[in-house]
Amino acid sequence: IANYDGLFSVALIPKPTLTLQAVEQFKLQLRNPFDGEVSNDADMFLSGEIAYIHQAAWQAAIGGNMVAVVGESGAGKTTMLDAMREKIVRDRLPVVCIRPSVAAMEDSEGRGAPLRTADLYISIAYALDKKARVPQGAQRRSQFVRELLEKSAANGNRHLLIIEEAHATPGVTLNQLKRLNEEMRLGRQPMLGVLLMGHPELEKKLCRHDVRESMQRASIVRLGPLDAHLNAYLQHRAKAAARALDEFITPDGVDELRTRLLVDRGSKTPPLSMLYPLNVNNWLTVCLNTAAALGAPRVDRDVVRVAKPD
């Protein structure tokens, strides 16, 4: 992926802001369907592929598995995680989500603060008992956390350790996550599932020889670009805002947007698709601004071709 930084800059753009002209022309005073985070289930777009990935992630929670969800920035990983956590709260499911802070996490001391095994144990302990006094020694700390998990499991709870930005997790910690997943069991019953969420670099890291312990046990699922689902996604976004897609963009405009977000990598390599939801939303907002500036009633093929981010 690092080799494609120059290509990314062609298709990945900063978040744009609707112009007043576009707001007035497209009657977007209340809401731009192609802007903002998913705030409820009605906003969620689920194709068969996306639904499969959601179900795979659930297996980490309910089955105690180790699952890695890999996707480019803006692919929908956070949206998926938010939907899972909201469902747990709304349906009062007996799943305890444990989310260690990754605000400063990097995979080396020189770049940031690596996530260590002690951090994982402390996060689990505090999630199960906010007043916990976690022992300092590794063996005592492990036994302490095991007892907390056993007590919680006896009350009918399942436990899910969620590592966001997992591409920045040190390889040694990834192996320790696998060991933690296997160690925290009651007989054959796992007490702690592990959900890793990260950029494509995570998959590359999991395939390294020094991380083979996790690589052989983690189920990797890929949250890919919209591609063939682009039109359905745009229609869903418009419908969720009680609007029709053809109020904003023509069919040939959708086709041209798809073409524009496929980055050519040469005759021997398939195009690189940047049709991720966040990027699509950003580009369509730019196109709406362009249409308003040109006096075009809707975004069509020509508008998409001349649209440029600020």
Describe the structure.
The protein is an alpha/beta fold and 310 residues long. It has helices at residues 5-11, 20-25, 48-63, 77-90, 117-128, 138-154, 171-183, 200-206, 212-215, 230-240, 251-260, 277-294, 301-306, and strands spanning 66-71, 95-98, 158-163, 185-186, 189-190, 193-198, 219-223, 262-263, 272-273.
Primary descriptors:
alpha/beta; 5-stranded parallel β-sheet; two-stranded antiparallel sheet; 310 residues; single chain
How would you briefly describe this protein structure?
With 310 residues, the chain is α/β, with parallel strands linked by helices. It has helices at residues 5-11, 20-25, 48-63, 77-90, 117-128, 138-154, 171-183, 200-206, 212-215, 230-240, 251-260, 277-294, 301-306; strands at residues 66-71, 95-98, 158-163, 185-186, 189-190, 193-198, 219-223, 262-263, 272-273.
Fold topology:
Elements: H1 5-11, H2 20-25, H3 48-63, E1 66-71, H4 77-90, E2 95-98, H5 117-128, H6 138-154, E3 158-163, H7 171-183, E4 185-186, E5 189-190, E6 193-198, H8 200-206, H9 212-215, E7 219-223, H10 230-240, H11 251-260, E8 262-263, E9 272-273, H12 277-294, H13 301-306
Helix pairs in contact: 5-6
Strand order of the largest sheet: 2-3-6-1-7
Mean pLDDT across every amino acid position: 89
Give the helix proportion (percent range): 40-55%
Major sheet characteristics: 5 strands, parallel
Helices, by number, come to 13
Q: Based on helices, strands and strand pairing, what is the structural class?
A: alpha/beta
- What global shape is seen? elongated
Query: What proportion strand?
Result: 5-15%
Distance between the termini: 25 Å
Helix and strand pattern = HHHEHEHHEHEEEHHEHHEEHH
> What is the alpha-carbon Rg in Å?
22 Å
The beta-strand count equals 9
**Regions with little confidence, pLDDT below 50 for 5+ residues:** 1-8
